[in-house]
Structure formats: structure tokens, C-alpha cells
Write a structure and sequence with these properties.
7-stranded mixed β-sheet, 7 strands, SGNH_hydro_sf, single chain, hydrolase activity, acting on ester bonds, Rossmann fold, DUF4886 domain-containing protein, DUF4886, globular, alpha/beta, 315 residues
Length: 315
């Protein structure tokens, strides 16, 4: 080959290599800028799950969450459906935008929230007094899912059911006697009712916050996840729920995520992340989180490397 041809060939190879590298970097950058849009049609329990920590967990992994919460305290599926029918402006529409800023719009309608973004996910949930009773879900859940499908701006939207948690064992909630004041009974009732309801309504996905909280209660932390017997603590409880949502929505393990509330100890962070991770893996059963587990006392290199340095250095 002539020298000129050789130079041209080498130039072409270098150009192609640069092009491929730029292409790979573009893909990596696109992944790092992933945006996930999720809307909760809920109440104070959806506020507990998405209004703290979820955005920050995403940011730590290069994922931008845009989060909407159509909020009415204690709102049941029945009331949500009535509001939809009447186009009633009863909601606080709480939205966390792409920069993490919260904006609250009062006197909003369900339609306002549904059409505000091209949502990737829309979630439903029952209010806590009724969450373990299947007959309270219908026909309202069917009607709400049809309403969302009709009015969404994203034909590919995924409908999800949010599995909520049982009350603390010593809760004084007025409706706890409906579950014989038995936390385990309430948890099992929620699992059974929400799973059957989702299947009946054609909802393929469930976010298992309830199982994550119950997993956490099985650990050394104990029953310390609620601030008043039913709403989650702003750090420990909400971080557990948000970790569960993060792992479900992104498909990425939350174990080793470097974000955590400053009020939690490294050991609490590791425990909560594991509780959420195990819940996503096994959403309908409790996994006991024990410090004596081999993965804790003698972590494998892969397991150890999952954790940020600041956690690994504080066993």
C-alpha cells in the first residue's frame, strides 16, 4: 500500500474510533440524564412515600425524577372516583420538578394532575382504614384506571398499585380495631387485598412499601418506622418507602446508593436499603433482616463494593 493510502487508512480508523467513542459517551450521558415521571393518586401515605428522599436517591444515580402527588388526607378510592366524576378541585397537587423544587397547587382537579405531564407511571392506593378489605376497592379502582387511560397524554403509561404498610403495633388509630389491633393481621390483609385488587383491575405492577416497612421492623431497628403510629417518620420511615419506589421505578438496586438522611446511622441506612431491596425481590412476604446474615458479617467483594466508602468504613 502506498504511504498516502496508509495515512488515509489510519486517519479513517482514528476517525471511526473517535466516532464510536463519542457515540458511547452519548449513550452513557443519555442514561445519566434519564428522566422518570411518576404521578401518585393518593393521600398522606403517598406523601410519605414520594415527597422526601425519592428525588435525591435518583439524583445520586443520575436519574431525574419528576414527581406528582394528588393529595387529599385520608382519601379513599371511592372519593377519588367521585372527584373524577365531578371534576372537583379538592386536591393539593404537589409537584417536584426536574430541579427538585416542590410546588404546591391548591384546589386542583384529578384531571389537572393527570394531564400535567406525560407520566411514565401513575399509581393508585387505598386509604389505610380500608387497605385490607377487598370489597372497598371496587368498582372504584376499575373506574379510576379507565379514567387515567382515557385522559393520559402517554398511551404507554404504566399503571401501578402502591401497597401501603400496617400500623405500628401500639397505634391508637381509630380504625386499628378493624384489624383486631394486630399488625401482622393488618399486613397480611393488605397484601391479600391489594394483590387481588391489582390483578382484578388489570394492574401489572405493585410497589411493595408495606413489605419494605415490615422487613425493616424485623431488623434490630424494630417497630420505629412511624411517627404517630401510622404515618412514617420523616427520615427512617420515608427513606424506606422512597428506597422501595426508587428500586422499583429504576430497576437499579438501592443497596449502595450514596444518598441518605443525615439523621440516620450508617447501620440504619444499610438495613433500610436491604429491607427495600428484599421487598422488591419478594413483595408479598416478609424477609427477616438479620445482622448475623453471612452477607453482613463477611460480605463478598461484590456485596462490599456495592456500598459507598463512607458506609463501608463504618460497619
Amino acid at each position: 500500500m502506498k504511504k498516502g493510502g496508509s495515512r488515509n487508512y489510519n486517519y479513517m480508523k482514528k476517525s471511526l474510533l473517535i466516532f464510536l467513542i463519542l457515540g458511547i459517551l452519548t449513550v452513557i450521558d443519555a442514561r445519566s440524564q434519564d428522566t422518570i415521571r411518576v404521578l401518585a393518586i393518593g393521600n398522606s401515605f403517598s406523601a410519605d412515600a414520594v415527597e422526601n428522599h425519592l428525588y435525591e436517591l435518583g439524583r445520586q444515580e443520575g436519574v431525574t425524577f419528576i414527581i406528582g402527588n394528588l393529595y387529599i388526607g385520608g382519601c379513599s378510592l371511592q372519593r377519588h372516583w367521585q372527584n373524577a366524576q365531578d371534576d372537583k378541585p379538592d386536591y393539593e397537587y404537589r409537584k417536584i420538578n426536574a430541579t427538585g423544587k416542590l410546588r404546591v397547587t391548591k384546589q386542583a382537579t384529578l384531571m389537572k394532575g393527570i394531564t400535567d405531564e406525560r407520566w411514565d407511571y401513575v399509581t393508585f392506593q387505598q386509604n389505610s382504614p380500608n387497605s385490607g378489605f377487598l370489597d372497598t376497592y371496587f368498582p372504584y379502582l376499575d373506574q379510576l384506571t379507565a379514567y387515567v387511560r382515557e385522559h393520559t397524554t402517554n398511551p404507554g403509561v404504566k399503571l401501578v398499585f402502591h401497597q401501603t404498610w400496617a400500623y405500628a403495633w401500639d397505634s391508637d388509630h381509630a380504625d386499628f380495631p378493624r384489624y383486631n389491633r394486630d399488625q401482622k393481621l393488618m399486613y397480611r390483609s393488605i397484601i391479600k387485598a391489594s394483590t387481588k385488587a391489582a390483578a382484578k383491575a388489570g394492574i401489572r405492577y405493585i410497589i411493595p412499601s408495606g413489605t419494605a416497612i415490615q422487613n425493616g421492623r424485623s431488623s434490630f431497628i424494630g417497630d420505629r418506622f412511624c411517627r404517630d403510629g401510622y404515618h412514617l417518620k420523616l427520615d427512617l420511615g420515608r427513606y424506606t418507602a422512597a428506597s422501595t419506589w426508587f428500586e422499583f421505578l429504576t430497576g437499579r438496586t438501592v443497596i449502595g446508593n450514596g444518598y441518605a438522611p443525615a439523621t440516620l446511622t450508617p447501620l440504619e441506612v444499610i438495613t433500610v436499603q436491604r429491607a427495600a431491596h428484599e421487598a422488591v425481590a419478594r413483595p408479598f412476604e416478609v424477609t427477616t433482616i438479620r445482622l448475623s446474615d453471612r452477607r453482613w458479617s463477611s460480605p463478598s467483594p461484590t456485596f462490599a463494593e456495592d456500598f459507598p466508602t463512607w458506609l463501608r468504613s463504618n460497619p
